[in-house]
Amino acid sequence: xxxxxxxxxxxxxxxxxxxxxxxxxxxxxxxxxxxxxxxxxxxxxxxxxxxxxxxxxxxxxxxxxxxxxxxxxxxxxxxxxxxxxxxxxxxxxxxxxxxxxxxxxxxxxxxxxxxxxxxxxxxxxxxxxxxxxxxxxxxxxxxxxxxxxxxxxxxxxxxxxxxxxxxxxxxxxxxxxxxxxxxxxxxxxxxxxxxxxxxxxxxxxxxxxxxxxxxxxxxxxxxxxxxxxxxxxxxxxxxxxxxxxxxxxxxxxxxxxxxxxxxxxxxxxxxxxxxxxxxxxxxxxxxxxxxxxxxxxxxxxxxxxxxxxxxxxxxxxxxxxxxxxxxxxxxxxxxxxxxxxxxxxxxxxxxxxxxxxxxxxxxxxxxxxxxxxxxxxxxxxxxxxxxxxxxxxxxxxxxxxxxxxxxxxxxxxxxxxxxxxxxxxxxxxxxxxxxxxxxxxxxxxxxx
Length: 448
Prior knowledge:
By secondary structure, the chain is α+β, with helices and mostly antiparallel strands. It folds into two domains: about 1-110, Ubiquitin-like (UB roll) (Roll); about 125-415, 2-Layer Sandwich (Creatine Kinase, Chain A, domain 2), CATH 3.30.590. The protein has helices spanning about 5-15, 40-45, 115-130, 175, 180-190, 220-240, 280-300, 355-375, 395-405, 410-415, 415-435, 440-445, and strands at about 20-25, 35-40, 50, 75-80, 85-90, 95-105, 130-145, 195-200, 210-215, 240-245, 260-265, 325, 335, 345. Strands 7, 8, 9, 10, 11, 12, 13 and 14 form an eight-stranded mixed sheet that branches. Strands 1, 2, 3, 4, 5 and 6 form a six-stranded mixed sheet that branches. The longest helix has 21 residues, at about 220-240. The mean pLDDT is about 95.
């Protein structure tokens, strides 16, 4: 609604609602919301807003890279709002709005370091071919008790009955209702933000949940996934809880994924993965082949942190390879049973900790390359995918080295983004190496 308002009408609306500030936010390299608070009346007038170019590439540790790809001058970029995302902030104690922004260079070009820009550049390649991707993410996460000491393990919160869940409650509606006050407010929050959700379930892990977002335009869907995480964390904190999107937050429990369902339509809205007779098209197989060929070089996008690689465990419902199969959840690439019009590929590689803009961009770029190059996939597997070799990168450093050695990653996502991303991830890994873990104290202290 607000995207259709004139500046004067928007100013009147914000003044009538008593709104003082607008959160001008954008996703950084980790998918974390950063930005500035802007006076509402200045926002309504369309006043220019700038931020340092380096901010989109800030490490989770707060550090910044001095790689030569980043100008020494640390110039500004403009923050340009996507007005369709302008919504009232549901969890704010005072009237406030938010809007997702693009980072645009002063020259008018999209900032190469901004994840939203990277996805836009990938989508432009599809438009050049008269094609439009359709994407739907499935996002898993945990709700835990408050955690004030990072040395302590995450634990389930107490529910309605005063007891914490003990597990084995997959698909339980009773357990889904245990944290009803949180869920009621969270439901209201995502409705207010215009996030189109589909099914909600209790997943395999203790107080682990999965929410499916409706399929749609990749930018709009990525914006919704970005705001979904923001809302979950803010509402959870109001209830003394944590919404946790780490890929493997709790030892011995299931990891959390962000499965991506993808199809492609032409200018007439026809799914190009399906031929006129209802059978699978050549492009369908080329798309799968592109994912198989190029995912290894892009693994650091799907699994961006040291913790991410703890998720890829045999028999854990997380993939360990890039085989594909029909309705096979043990494969990294799954083709769900569907009508011909809904034929799609489910990429099961990304963790819940992945940046949704970058993960969608990587998956779509790899699939498009497969179609352009007419690559051929392996034969689909039947049976247990865990009986096949573990050919995904097993560690962060292996994935980092694969991307660094790859010409393809730069071709698919842009050389500036890849160089910057590798530098940021290297800094984060160096920070990780400076930590001494409980495992080292437990086993090395008494025996070494």
